[in-house]
Each structure stands twice: as structure tokens, then as C-alpha cells.
UniProtKB/TrEMBL annotation:
PROSITE patterns: AA_TRANSFER_CLASS_3. Belongs to the class-III pyridoxal-phosphate-dependent aminotransferase family. HemL subfamily. It is found in: Cytoplasm. Coiled coil: none annotated. This is Glutamate-1-semialdehyde 2,1-aminomutase. One of its GO terms (biological process) is protoporphyrinogen IX biosynthetic process. One of its GO terms (cellular component) is cytoplasm.
């Protein structure tokens, strides 16, 4: 009742009652849980109900919620002042740590969100190359800046259409939207307008159309064609950075992007984003160069403290081995329960992120993701929630596992899934 009461009150003062749209349960229906606290693998709502959490704050909560060392680091930093608007040594330590872990990043600039990171990286790519056009892929999300809120047009080079009201067509007229995993389309676009393409931005493992992995050769092909035409390759690792593996997808594949965008994990639950990469490119940013970019709270000392401690924890021996094994065991267990109940289902994972799909096989593109049984997902989602398991409230989002998700947590998840798949089978 309290969740419902707060949701009703929230809708009076906040549009839709939420500060980010997917939180509103719009695509699954029902009442969002208003969260009171979180610890380890669990969240508790305002009614005191405990849930196993597979949202993980949409990625940041990789070491588990309220990790005592992270909380202590935040408290200590806060006691020294919340924000100075002047540089701190801790920012340098975080920049050095990011560069050490992701060697493609020779220099890095901290911002406060993933949206800022990608928006700034695109401006930088355009400023560096002195070109206008960018390529993005259908189903990849890179934050909500104007030129990235685009859906595919009707043909390859009919440029994308705005996917949000309030974005004039002219603002996206230089954004080319192509199918994920379709290298031929990329080559064709470059063949036609390659000398005006500033960059290709890609989620190297997509996590915003559920989880979609790159096909063999796709990312390598992007690297080659960008190099051939002098365009920059931007890996948007806001979600995958320190989540898909210790060195992001670039570490898993050995492919070196020119620029990388980060957020989520590097802030450990506090607002931090970053973009970085080749030194010659990064030197084009103000105050050194002509590409402007700034932020009152960029490199915020409390956020940086949370990020530094989080990176320290996930660099400890065995961290990713355990996280990856847990996540694989999770999807294997879910597949098994679905099969037991004869539900059409597939699942996949990389590092500490996973996708579940109510379709026969793992999807490779946005249109394949769309071709899944959304009604089945809704039933599954609500049945899991009733059993105390909080999944992402949409069939088109990835899920996240933390270091605190242990065997007992998985066992409880499988018990819940057994009942939830039974409900799906009875639909
Ligand atoms: N890029 C990717 C790959 C993301 O997953 C997100 C957020 N889900 C963003 C950019 C935007 O980040 P933020 O929400 O911090 O602005």
C-alpha cells in the first residue's frame, strides 16, 4: 500500500512519478517499488519487503550495495567538503587508475553522467576530424543528448528520425543509424559519405536493447573501416566498462578504440562519467584545444572517492572470475527452469551482465530483440517480483549481478523462477 500511496503522491510533483522513465514500470504495468535501503545483493522497499536485486542501479552496484569500504570512503571524503570547483589529487588518482586499467585511454576527462560523456566524446570527434556525420546503431543507447536520440530512417542513407519530441530533424540530420552487427551497412555508408564521417559510436556489447553481443568480426570491421577513412571509433563502455570484464569489452576483444566513454561502475553508485582515449585527440579539449567542455561538479570529490574505492575492490584477485561464474550459473539455471516448464526462452551473459529473452534463440539485432514474447516477460517479471526478485522492469533491458550474489541468492532466484515459469506456461 505504501508503494502505491507514494507513487500516487509522486505523480503530483514529478512527471510520471519518477526521475528516469524506465523506473515507472510503464512497459510491465503495476506499481514501482520505492526503495528505502539496499545492502549486498538485496534492496528493501518502503513497506519493508526484501528483494534480490538484479537492477544493481542499472550497473554501478558491482561490489554489492552499501559496501562498507565504499561507504567509509564516501563518508571520509564528505567530511572534507562536498565540492570545491577546484582540482583535487583524488581526480588525478582516478584518471591514472582508469588509464592503467584501460590502456587505450591515454588521457581522460571526468564528467557526471554517461550522457555527458558520450555527448562530449561526439563533439570531440567532430572537432578533431573537422567532420559532421556520426554513425550509431539501432538499439544502442548513448544517453539523451539531441543528436543521439535517433531511430533508423527508412533507407540506409536516409538519415535517422528523432526518437524524441523536442529534437528538430536538423539536429539529427548528421546521425546515420545502422543495424547492429551489420558490417556491410557500415562499409556502404563509408563508401558513400566516408570523408564526412567523424566517428562510429557503438556499445561493444549492447546492453540497452536487452543484451546483444557483437558477432565475430563486427567490432574488428568497425576498427578497420574507421582507420581506413580517418574516422574515430568510440566504444561506449558506460555499461560494459568494468562490468563485462576487468578491462571492459576492449580487454575481452583486444580491439583498441580511439575514444572510450565510461560511467556507472567508475562512480560506484555516485554520479561519475568519463571520456578518454588517444592523447592527440584528448588534447583538443579546452583549456588546451578548441573543443569546449566543462562541468561545475565534474570530478566531484565524494563521487571520485566512491569510484576509486570501487575500482580498488574489483581489482582484487578472483573478483571477475567469481562474478562471471555467478552470472553464467544464473542464466544456466534460468534456462533449465524454463525448459522444465516448456517455456520458449533463451539467455546469455558476459561478465556481470545478462540478458533473458522470451524467444527461441539469443538475438543479434534490435529487430530480433523486438521479436520476443513481451506478454510472457510481463507475467514472468511480476511473478518474480511477488517472489522477492527484482528484475529490470522491461523486456528490453539487461540485468546485473554483483559480487554479493552468492549461491544462496541464486538458489532463491531459481525457486522463484520455478514458480514464475510455471505461471508463464499456464498463460
Ligand atoms: N551509454 C550507455 C551504453 C548507457 O547504458 C547509458 C545509461 N544506461 C548511457 C550511455 C547514459 O548514461 P547516464 O544514464 O549516466 O546519462
Amino acid at each position: 500500500m505504501k508503494n502505491q500511496a507514494i507513487f500516487e503522491r509522486a505523480q503530483l510533483s514529478i512527471p510520471g512519478g519518477v526521475n528516469s522513465p524506465v523506473r515507472a514500470f510503464k512497459s510491465v504495468g503495476g506499481t514501482p517499488r520505492f526503495i528505502a535501503r539496499a545492502e549486498g545483493a538485496y534492496i528493501w522497499d518502503v513497506e519493508g519487503t526484501q528483494y534480490i536485486d538484479y537492477l544493481g542501479s542499472w550497473g554501478p552496484a558491482i561490489v554489492g550495495h552499501s559496501h562498507p569500504e565504499v561507504v567509509k570512503a564516501v563518508q571520509e571524503a564528505a567530511a572534507n567538503g562536498l565540492s570545491f570547483g577546484a582540482p583535487t589529487e583524488a581526480e588525478v588518482l582516478l584518471a591514472e587508475k582508469i588509464s592503467e586499467l584501460l590502456p587505450s585511454i591515454e588521457q581522460v576527462r571526468l564528467v557526471s553522467s554517461g550522457t555527458e560523456a558520450t555527448m562530449s566524446a561526439i563533439r570531440l570527434a567532430r572537432g578533431f576530424t573537422n567532420r559532421r556525420k556520426i554513425i550509431k546503431f539501432e538499439g544502442c543507447y548513448h544517453g539523451h543528448s539531441d543528436s543521439l536520440l535517433v531511430k533508423a530512417g527508412s533507407g540506409l542513407l536516409t538519415f535517422g528520425n528523432p526518437s524524441s519530441a523536442g529534437v528538430p530533424e536538423e539536429f539529427v540530420s548528421h546521425t546515420i543509424v545502422l543495424e547492429y552487427n551489420n558490417l556491410d551497412a557500415v562499409k556502404q555508408a563509408f563508401a558513400e559519405v566516408g570523408n564526412d564521417i567523424a566517428c562510429v559510436i557503438v556499445e561493444p556489447v549492447a546492453g540497452n536493447m536487452n543484451l546483444v553481443k557483437p558477432k565475430a568480426g563486427f567490432l574488428e570491421g568497425l576498427r578497420d573501416v574507421c582507420t581506413q577513412y580517418g574516422a574515430l571509433l568510440i566504444f561506449d563502455e558506460v555499461m560494459t566498462g568494468f562490468r563485462a570484464g576487468p578491462k571492459g569489452v576492449q580487454g575481452l576483444t583486444g580491439i583498441k578504440p580511439d575514444l572510450t566513454t565510461l560511467a556507472k561502475v567508475i562512480g560506484g553508485g555516485m554520479p561519475v562519467g568519463a571520456f578518454g582515449g588517444r592523447r592527440d585527440v584528448m588534447q583538443c579539449i579546452a583549456p588546451l584545444g578548441a573543443v569546449y567542455q566543462a562541468g561545475t561538479l565534474s570530478g566531484n570529490p565524494v563521487s571520485v572517492a566512491a569510484g576509486l574505492k570501487t575500482l580498488e575492490i574489483l581489482c582484487r584477485p578472483g573478483f571477475y572470475e567469481k562474478l562471471t561464474a555467478t552470472t553464467s550459473a544464473l542464466v544456466a539455471g534460468l534456462r533449465e527452469k524454463a525448459a522444465k516448464h516448456g517455456v520458449t526462452f533463451s539467455a546469455d551473459s558476459v561478465g556481470g551482465m545478462f540478458g533473458i529473452y522470451f524467444r527461441e534463440s539469443v538475438p543479434t539485432s534490435f529487430s530480433e530483440v523486438q521479436d520476443s514474447n513481451v506478454e510472457a516477460f510481463k507475467v514472468f517479471f511480476h511473478a518474480m517480483l511477488e517472489e522477492g526478485v527484482h528484475l529490470a522492469p522491461s523486456a528490453f533491458e539487461a540485468g546485473f549481478v554483483s559480487a554479493c550474489h552468492d549461491e544462496a541468492v541464486l538458489a532463491r532466484t531459481f525457486e522463484a523462477a520455478d514458480k514464475a515459469f510455471a505461471k508463464v506456461a499456464a498463460m
